[in-house]
Design goal:
Largest sheet: 8 strands, parallel, barrel
Radius of gyration: 17 Å
Order of helices and strands: EHHEHEHEHHEHHEHHEHEH
Helix content: 40-55%
Oligomer: single chain
CATH topology: TIM Barrel
Bound molecules: 2-phosphoglycolic acid
CATH architecture: Alpha-Beta Barrel
Structural class: alpha/beta
Distance between the termini: 10 Å
Number of domains: 1
Number of helices: 12
CATH superfamily: Aldolase class I
């Protein structure tokens, strides 16, 4: 059975001391019993990764970055590479987030390079995909998702190290959440695509997270859906008490 995953994406938020307080409290709040039932991941900005690794030493949660360069080393000012993250001990890294696609013109081709970099460097990718509101209204959501999967995963042998996050762009940071049925339909479509492009076993092993205005109020219903294995949580992951509440809900809403 797939374990539930609750992943926080802090985006560009928190000062160093805010980050420190959050991580210390998270470590105190999580007990061993959580570990068997839910995997907790915190994706911090780069400058706080070292701090997060230290706090995560107790093994109660995992740490991820929010992006990675498509290159390994060299003259790329301001970039951070997968070998660097690996040398620090990163567990996960988000790639293809819609904010990277929108503000940094990232294409599926670039995300494909990043995916390869992460797999080569033993960091688990959290690959984000999702449609815009216009694409949904035009009835082409599945076509867009299929194109993104094909582009981002080109030439890659799929396996359970990869986590996919379905994040409808119209639901990110807007307060509008996809209904559990809308999300489930796309999650099932993604799982089918994986099965067709690898095997049923791998499709059953790969975790597919939902992201987009997930909060305590809608967590249980989303997580009860057959193909929703957890959440990639932005805004609601910034307050420790809300984040812990969502972890608790994930534990109690096991299918
Ligand atoms: P949100 O962000 O929960 O604030 O909508 C989710 C994400 O962008 O990963």
């Amino acid at each position: 059975m797939r374990k539930k995953i609750i992943a926080g994406n802090w985006k560009m938020n928190k000062t160093f001391s805010d980050a420190e307080n959050f991580l210390i409290t998270l470590d105190e709040e999580l007990s061993e019993r959580y570990l068997q039932r839910v995997e907790v991941i915190v994706c911090t900005p780069y400058p706080y990764l070292e701090l997060a690794f230290d706090q995560a030493d107790s093994g109660k949660f995992f740490v991820g970055a929010q992006d990675i360069s498509s290159h390994d080393f060299g003259a790329y000012t301001g970039e951070v590479s997968a070998p660097m993250l690996h040398s620090m001990g990163a567990d996960y890294c988000i790639i293809g987030h819609s904010e990277r696609r929108k503000y940094h013109q990232e294409t599926d081709e670039m995300i494909n390079q990043k995916l390869k970099q992460l797999l080569e460097n033993e960091i688990k990718p959290i690959l984000c995909i999702g449609e815009t509101i216009t694409e949904r209204e035009n009835g082409i959501t599945k076509k867009i998702i299929k194109n993104q999967l094909e582009g981002c995963c080109k030439g890659i042998e799929l396996d359970e190290r990869i986590t996919i996050a379905y994040e409808p762009i119209w639901a990110i940071g807007t307060g509008k959440t996809a209904t559990p049925q809308q999300a489930q339909e796309i999650h099932a479509f993604i799982r089918d695509w994986i099965a067709q492009n690898s095997s049923t076993r791998i499709a059953e092993d790969i975790a597919i997270l939902y992201g987009g205005s997930m909060k305590p109020k809608n967590t249980a219903e989303l997580l009860q859906q057959k193909d929703i294995d957890g959440g990639l949580i932005g805004g609601a992951s910034l307050k420790i008490e809300i984040f812990v509440e969502m972890i608790d809900i994930a534990i109690t809403s096991q299918k």
